[in-house]
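Class prep. Write one:
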Amino acid sequence: MSRASWSAGYNRLLSWLLPHTLLGRLSVVMVFGVLVTQLAGGLIWSAQLRSKAEVETRTASQHLAHSAASAVRFFMSLPANYRPILIQQLREMGGTRFFVNTNDGPITIHKIGDNPLANMALGEIGATLKTDLPFLPGFRLAFAWPDDLIVSSDGLKVADLPDSWVQHTLLIKPNPAPVLVIQTELEPGNWLYLAALMPNPYFLDTDNPLSAERLLLQGVSLATVLLLSILVVRWTTRPLAALSDAADAFGKGEAPPELPETGSREFVKTARAFRAMRERIKRYLDDRERLFVSISHDLRTPITRLKLRTELLDDEELRSEFHEDLDELDMMVKGALQSVKDSDIHENRTEVRLDALILRMIRDARMAGHEVAFSESGLTVMAKPLALKRAIGNLFDNALHYGQKVEVSVASLINESGANIQIQIRDHGPGVPEEALLSLFDPYTRLEHGRDQNAGGMGLGLGIARNIVQAHGGELLLRNHPDGGLVATIVLPQT
């Protein structure tokens, strides 16, 4: 795949994924940036948290293992028949670090689920016990939840013991913590059972970055940042929307609202530049109209004078040629003035019933003997009535001149740009060569068959119609029909 095609595909993907408004795009970028930042920060924090938890767990495991080794040595030093008596006294006195019991064999422990931090703690404890008590055959180590923890050979559980025996040793309620169980054989048939909590009972949660409290804190932080970001973006883009509305109104020939000189420095500068540009364009349009009016007025007098002088010529053929040239010159002057005035009709927009407007044109055409097909649509559009009538009339007159039959249709369509009104006028004439379609809007452009069928035309109607349609925020499209004839389509926003 070439670099250009890859870039084009990437741009299409971004266009499809991102919203079409500036507010939406900036909001998506801000949300994505915040999420990526929080994710990266969470990963770094999680790695640091895990490293810190491992160091603390390793240290705590060694400390607990040394204490367990001391307890094992103590009970080994006692005669076997003294051990139950001492254990009973310890339970009644309380305050011991370990819950201690003796059994005639090892107890099966229901271990907690596999956990890397717990496995590391068991490994560290086992290694320390072997170092401190190398003369013992081995140790059975496990972490278990207190609800399922069995403490004696007869199946007695921690939950069945009196609270005074375990309230200072093991956490059972309201938030149980995993219990470390150490079992070792002191003599054949005599096993010592030690149960205790880690120095940090909830050490398994210390390396969990997704605890409920942390998730709540990150959620509140994310919501706050996103809310502030969207408010800032909205505040930033609102002046741009006002500028867009003003430019759209000015382009349609309406009085644009004044832009406030408030907000950021860049917007104030843009608003002033837009105001200055609008004034320059208005002066240019006024000067253009005055210029054409003056030219028309100044040329009519010498043209009339020349026509009178040609009447004095004795040569009738020469006189006729002069008359034709002067008539053509007069028509060109009037056409140029018409192209300026008709595309700049000053009137307010109002709701126009398209059926009524088009039916008036069709009635006159049918009275003149033309065949016109039209089905009423009941649609309306906000437009300048006289200007829109001029645009549709120019296209309708062209269709009557160049085709034996005319078909007119009005429909409402919805596409990517929103709801539109489509006015389509088709003639059944010879059509237009494809290479000549774009040049039809140029002033004084007339094709050969057009000159033959409409000798009085000047080639200005299509250009005037397009200028009017564009001033309404729409577009005028020309194409050849597959079955013959030209199709002119006016597309207007349905507002």
Observations:
- The domain at 265-343 is CATH 1.10.287 (Helix Hairpins).
- The radius of gyration is 47 Å.
- The CA atoms of residues 91 and 162 lie 10 Å apart.
- The chain has twelve helices and eleven strands.
